[in-house]
Amino acid sequence: MKYFLIFLATGLSLADTSAQIQPLERPHVLLVCVDDLKPLLGCYGDKRVKSPNIDRLASRGMTFDSAYCNQAVCAPSRNSLLTGLRPQTLGIYDLATNFRKARPEALTLPRHFRDQGYKTQGIGKIFHVGHGNTEDPVSWSVPHYQVRSIAYALPENQMLPTREGALFENKPANNLAKGPAYESAPVPDNAYGDGVIADEAIRRIQEAGKQPENPMFLAVGFLRPHLPFCAPKKYWDLYDRKSFALPECTTPPEGAPPYAPTHFGELRNYANIKAQGPLEEDLQRTLIHGYHASISYMDAQLGRILDELDRSDLAKNTIILLWGDHGWHLGDHGMWCKHTNYEQATRIPLMVSMPGTIRAGRRTSSLTETVDIFPTLCELAGIPTPRGLDGRSFADVLQKPNLKPKAFVQQVYPRGDKLGRALRTDRYRLVEWKKPGDLPSTAELELYDYKNDPLETTNIAGKEPDLARSLQSHFLGMKEAKKPFQPGQNNKPKPADRLALFQRKDKNGDGKLSLAEFLAEQKDPDQAPKRFELFDTDNNGELTREEFVTQGGRVK
């Protein structure tokens, strides 16, 4: 049976079954990523937010209650999703640095599916584009469909180009005006980007329905609820602004290092947000209102896509995976935006649906992280899993939701020359702050007990030194985190050249080189077969991209 796989970046919901999950035969794949979506959803127990379509998707599969990103900022989080590598493996912790500068030969999730015969397509925000970062053309079979991340509908807000708009389009932003942090306009859904994205996704699904025998990987990336909180007025009208309560905890955790919190510079880049200090209560309620309206707007666009799947009769043959790239502080701890190692910034929605394969409406508390998604999708689709990924497939959890294959998941965030590496267990979070390469004894630690202190009000590392050291010892069994990548540092043009050479040699586009393809145009035909044997580390008679580019692991 052919399947249509939907990967939605905002959460993961997979149904459960007592039987062994069998890989699907050449499933179609639809990946949808949601920007800045925390698990503030009906299916996660929130009583106020209006998210009927995400809730509908959750009811079809399994919802992951303990899913976490690997870094709470867009580009590194999406790198983890799309390369299966942690930020500390790549050494990339910022928005601007493209992952291929550090790892030119990296095999991305969509490129891997493309190499397995899929038509891979991207719409909206999949890779982070902007702030100096760029799209990854080799991942897609057809050019990526880009939509403006920053756009306003009210005439008074369209008069001048804005700083954030320029940054997201990789244009000079010096001396440009700040745009508003939110907008409510009486306009149709496709006056903003997510409506346009849904329109295009529907068109692609209709095309797929005409040729269901051709496997397709379609990635759809929604923009909201990322700032600015721009949504049609009807979604703002779903809520009574006065009903929003302000956070209970409004100060950073007691005893936390002074550099650990965020001062939410991202929000301060918008108009009418003061440069420092806490926000006025009236503004806080407006921002909370805008975040909710943005969720409902995005949710409605997802609903349109699900409705189209149902109309096209593809739903019964579709795996849907939904993921959020990171959480968001909504005033808790006196913080806004993401950019920390704390719970509200790192916990994400994740859900998966496999009709007819996994029982619907189930939940799991199994710890899961973004890097696990790449190998999971490979296993579910029945395609080979690339070697060297940092994550672990959670396909077994889909069969048995009570399984706990991971004792902890990891996050990371930089502050100056220090790097905060975090472990999240089912009860604790331990954060180790030190310079990469320094001794563990030099680290400053944070430790939070979510059983006794669910709001993270107090760092107990000093009160519980034995527990803190025990959790910190897990880092001893890991590779040291890489220092932030710098231009000219670890640049290896040879792998980049070899990646281009691989693509030229791969005449049939199957993502592998046969001996004949490898020997073509070799200047030393007598010696080249020996190199082929050397590079072929698994001795299967063909070279993967990784084997060719790294010369069988000899070049990293």
Query: What percentage of the residues does DSSP assign to strands (E)?
Result: 15-25%
Q: CATH superfamily assignment of the largest domain?
A: Alkaline Phosphatase, subunit A
Number of strands: 21
Distance between the termini: 40 Å
Spans of 5+ residues with little confidence (pLDDT < 50)?
9-19, 490-494
Describe the structure in your own words.
- The structure is a single chain.
- The chain is α/β, with parallel strands linked by helices and 556 residues long.
- It has 2 domains: 4-399, Alkaline Phosphatase, subunit A (3-Layer(aba) Sandwich); 503-549, no CATH class.
- Helix content is 28%, strand content 17%.
- The strands form 8 sheets. Strands 1, 2, 9 and 13 form a 4-stranded mixed β-sheet that branches. The protein has a 4-stranded antiparallel β-sheet with strand order 16-17-18-19, with helices on one face.
- A hairpin with a 5-residue loop joins strand 10 (329-330) and strand 11 (336-337).
- Helix 7 (193-210) packs parallel to helix 10 (281-312).
- The two termini are 40 Å apart.
Concise account of the structure shown:
By secondary structure, this protein is of the alpha/beta class.
What is the topology?
Blueprint: E1 4-9, E2 28-34, H1 52-59, E3 62-64, E4 67-68, H2 74-83, H3 87-90, H4 99-102, H5 109-115, E5 119-124, H6 163-168, E6 182-185, H7 193-210, E7 216-222, E8 229-232, H8 233-236, H9 265-268, H10 281-312, E9 318-324, E10 329-330, E11 336-337, H11 343-346, E12 347-348, E13 350-353, E14 362-364, E15 368-369, H12 373-381, H13 395-399, E16 409-415, E17 418-424, E18 428-434, E19 444-449, H14 465-472, H15 493-505, E20 512-513, H16 515-519, H17 528-535, E21 543-544, H18 545-549
Parallel strand pairs: 1-2, 1-9, 2-9, 3-14, 4-15, 5-7, 6-8
Antiparallel strand pairs: 4-12, 9-13, 10-11, 16-17, 17-18, 18-19, 20-21
Helix pairs in contact: 1-10, 7-10
